[in-house]
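REQUEST FORM: STRUCTURE PREDICTION
Request ID: SP-0412
Submitted by: Lab K.M.
Chain count: 1
Length (residues): 273
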Amino acid sequence: MSEMPTLAAATAPVKWERFTFGQRMLRYALWIFCVWAIVQSAASIEIIPEFLYDAPEQMADMLSRMWPVDWAYYQPDVHIGLMETIQMATLGTILSLVMALPLGVMVAPNVTRSKLLNVIARVILVTSRSVNSLVWAMLFVAIFGPGSLAGMFAIALRSVGFVGKLVGEALEQMPKGPIEALQAAGASKFSQLWYGYWPQIKPAFWSVTLLRWDINVRESGVLGLVGAGGIGVVLNTCIDLFQWDRVALVLISIFAVVALAEIVVLQIRKRLL
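STATUS: Completed
RESULT:
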């Protein structure tokens, strides 16, 4: 008789729980925080109901003004702006590569053994990534004046952090075998970089370069809104003058250039990588 409770307890079903009590409380707290953040954000942006209700009508009116598109405006203003945008993106990307490669080598601790150089390179890369392209453009417009030169430097400074970080990570993840073999053979530091590291990171480097150029083509289209040259200057002028049929042409042209850049990058990746 004394064994009956023990046997019943042993055969009782085990209750399975996906989360512990502490995990459930943490999930509830996160949900409450998200709801609170949404409510606070909605209260702080000061939505004007009259403008919100009127938005569909205003959008329909704007779209009606955009049609028919003023295709005759493409030459020469829009064409020159598009060519300037592509040139800004290309030169800015090339300049960023020149600056990013040394910083990528400096930030990788397995290549550069100096802690001080690692920290300096990391600070530069983080600073580059933390400042938006439009902010860089505003700073360079103040330095060089309006024009594509400011846009080129803005694109370059923004891209340095992106390219340098990925190059540094690719160097850190390299296998040690080829480098140790070169060191055992008495190879110089430059020979180790050129014959050991570079062949390993070359596919990642070209992939990052093409991706960054594609991104820069997209970003350079809006830098003209702050006076940094490119198609953005034409777009800003048309908006200020309420020339919505020309605004439509500019938007279509930007979309076509971005789509073409995507196709070019895809074809180059197929052949190089």
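NOTES: The radius of gyration is 28 Å.
Reviewed by: T.R.
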